Every structure is written in C-alpha cells, then in structure tokens.
Amino acid sequence: MTTTGGRRVAVPGGGGGGAARSGPWWWGRRRSFALDATLAAVSAAECAAEGAFFMAGRGLPAVLGVVFGLAVGATLVVRRRWPVAVVLISLAVTPAQMGLVLGVVSLYTLAASDVPRRVVGALVSMTIGGTLLVTFVEMHRDGGRSGYATPSWMGMAFLVLVAIGLTVPPVLLGLYVGARRRLVETLRERADDLERELALLAEKAGERAERARIEERTRIAREMHDVVAHRVSLMVVHAAALRSVAVRDPERAVRSAELLGDLGRQALGELRQMLGVLRTGEPAGPAAPVGPGTVDDGAGQEPSGPQPSLAQLGVLVEESRAAGMAVSLSEEGDRRPLAAPVERTAYRVVQEALTNVHKHAVGAQTLVRVAYRAEEIAVLVENGPPAGEPSAGLPSGGNGLVGMKERVTALGGGFVAGPSRSGGFRVSAVIPARAE
C-alpha cells in the first residue's frame, strides 16, 4: 500500500501497509525494498547454481546457466509490482528444476496481493500440476537409471506430498497475511473516517454554539427591551405630567410622584430579576417587591418571580390610563389558562404596542382587544391618529416590532403591524392556543 494525495493506493503484493511512503518506486518503505533486494539476491544465486548444473548435465556451457539463473532469480525484486508475472516465470523454469526460493516467495506474494482469487487459484493449480509433472518425470528417469522400481502408490504419495509441500504452505500464509493486512487497512480507514466525522461534528458544534450565542444575545436584548422600555416610557410620561401640574394641582402632582416611584421600583425589580437569571450557575434570586406584570422569561431558566399573563392586562391598561392614555380593553370568548409561553407572548405584544403609543401617538384613542378562540388566541392593539399633544421625546430604536414578531413566530403564530385606515397604527398577532 502507498499513499498518494492523502489517499491510500493498493500496490499488488505490497507489504508497506498504510504507512507513509519512504522507499523508492513502488516500495512503501525502505525496509521493504531492502527485503526484496535480499530475496532477489538469494534467489539469483540459487538459480545461477541450479542453472549451471542443469546446463552441464546436458552438455551445454555452464556460464549460460549462470547468466540465465541470475536473470530469472533477480525477477523476485519486482514481486510486489507484478506478482503474476513472477509466478509465471517461476512456473516456466520448473522443468529446469530451478527457482525453489523464487517459486515459494512468488506464490506467497501472489496470495497476499490484491489479485483476484480466481487468478490466484488458476496459477496455484498450474504450479501444482507443473510440480507433479516435473517430479514424476524425474522419478521415472532416476528409477530407470538405477534399475530400482518404486511402488506406484508410494510414488504417487511422494509426488502429492512434494507438490503440496511446495505450494500450499506459502499460499496459505500469503492468504492469511493479505487478509490481515486488508483488515488493518479497513480499520485504519474507518478510524480516519471517524476522525474526520468527529472533526466535522466538532465544527458543526462550534457553528451551533456560535448561532446559539448570537440568538441568546438577541433574546437577551429583546427581554431587556420588553422589560424596561414600558416602565421607563411610563416614567417619562409621568415626569412630564408632574412638571405641568406641580403648581396648579399639588394633589395630582403627589399622586404622579408616587406612581413614578412605583414604576421606578418595578423597573429596578425586573432588572434585578433578569440579571439574577442571567448569572451563570446562579438561580434567579427573589426580585424586589414589584407590582403585577413584573416578569422575565429568563435566559434558559424559569424565572422565580411572578409571571405575566393575560389576566394582568387590566393592570397594564390601568397603568397606561394613569399616564393619560385613553385606552379601552375588550375581551371576547371564554378566558382559559394557556401555556406560559403563549400567555407571556400575548402580554408582551400588548405591552410593547402600548409603549409605542406612548412614544409616537400621545393622546390617541387606543383599543386593546383579546379574542379567545378554540385553537388560537388573537390580540389586537389599534390606536387612532395622535391628538396633537406634545411628544414626550422618548427615543425609539425600531426593535420593538421586530421583537414582537420574533416572539410570535417562534410559537408558530402570525404577526402583522402597520398603519390603519383611520390614520393610526395597528398591531395584531394570532398565536396557537396550547393548553397549560
């Protein structure tokens, strides 16, 4: 096996495994090259000696046998690259009774390589047949020269033992080594795949964590806006009213001052509760005593303070009336307890819509309508055109409508906001009614 561009590439008969390439040509490692060179040298020496003996026995120059044997034995150096060719060369020189090391090592390499099994079986069968045939001929030749007749059963047993002994052990060993190497490669590839999958999962987890952080920052900003903006807006409105009536109506100024203080304490209590929930590993401590409507959805935790609900809309409307807004509340259908997220979202929509009226339509007639339906709850806040009273000078960041829409759509509802035909503004939301 070799590695190319990060991928493992199988080399027939290779023994380099999945290690990085460090040897020349097709050898995966230098020690593999050294082993093949050593085996080729041993095989060449053996084939040279056997070739010289073979040529001399037939009255031919021994040097031809030496040269031929050296060439044949040296082919073992390419056994990993062309195992089939080396086996065929070994099979071709079998009649010359040469190449024992060549035959054994080439059969082992063939069985351990990735050559198709049908090709391996055919070459092994041919080798066994050739060995039987050559051994049979030599036995009869030697028997004829010596005049000793060997029993036929003994001769056949000897032939079979010789053929099997020279072919089956190296083939079985090669099959075992090849199967083990392929198993190791498969396990290594699976480990690499698992490592890549883990890296990909870690990357995706990092992306999810980043998205979660962004969503959490957005949610915290929305919560801070919803919790504080309404109270602070009412405080600014009451402060403006207090300045205008302080001289001509002291009693009303006192009531406005008391209400202003209550609103400030409520805003501080809500902030304290939210910051307690946002602290890592710390539960939200009890908030300072606040009026109805003190809420916080928390940052992944359930708040410990009172939760907003549609039953508190009356208090919310009264607070706006106390600030000088002409607002009326209308409820349709049978009121029933709903899931806390539904109650909170509907409450926040009304709260933010009234805050926008305080900012942009001072003195406008405002209607708050809540309809309890079988499978949903509908909320509508609609105000008429401004009454021409001076604005309280409240800043607007444009995040209120965005926050309302995010809340409603997160529950699978629909949200619409825009100018009305009467010249005012309308905010409506329809939220699936899930039972508590």
TrEMBL record:
DUF7134 domain boundaries: 25-166
GO CC terms, sorted: membrane
Enzyme class name: transferase
A Pfam entry, by short name: DUF7134
Signal transduction histidine kinase subgroup 3 dimerisation and phosphoacceptor domain mapped to chain residues: 216-281
Superkingdom per UniProt: Bacteria
Protein name in the entry: histidine kinase
Organism per entry: Streptantibioticus cattleyicolor (strain ATCC 35852 / DSM 46488 / JCM 4925 / NBRC 14057 / NRRL 8057) (Streptomyces cattleya)
